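Lab notebook, design round three. We kept the backbone fixed and only want residue identities now. Task for the bench partner: fill in a sequence for the structure below.
Input structure tokens:
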């Protein structure tokens, strides 16, 4: 499932990131990588942006970025 399918308060484990090297490197610098667990902290209307927590860090992602992250719900 895509990260955008999770709702506020739900947790997931990152399975795969479907992005180019530049975006993958940027996400990795925030701790967003395969095998990491995350929690959805909040979403804007229509999920244009999502706030997630990974390893104690809060990160805001655009919808286009979140759709490229494949997760497994925990």
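Proposed sequence:
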């Amino acid at each position: 499932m895509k990260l955008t399918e999770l709702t506020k308060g739900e947790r997931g484990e990152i399975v795969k990131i479907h992005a180019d090297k530049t975006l993958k490197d940027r996400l990795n610098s925030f701790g967003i990588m395969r095998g990491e667990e995350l929690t959805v902290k909040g979403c804007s209307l229509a999920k244009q942006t999502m706030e997630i927590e990974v390893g104690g860090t809060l990160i805001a992602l655009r919808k286009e970025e979140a759709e490229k992250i494949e997760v497994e719900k925990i």
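Keep this in mind before ordering anything: The chain has two helices and five strands.
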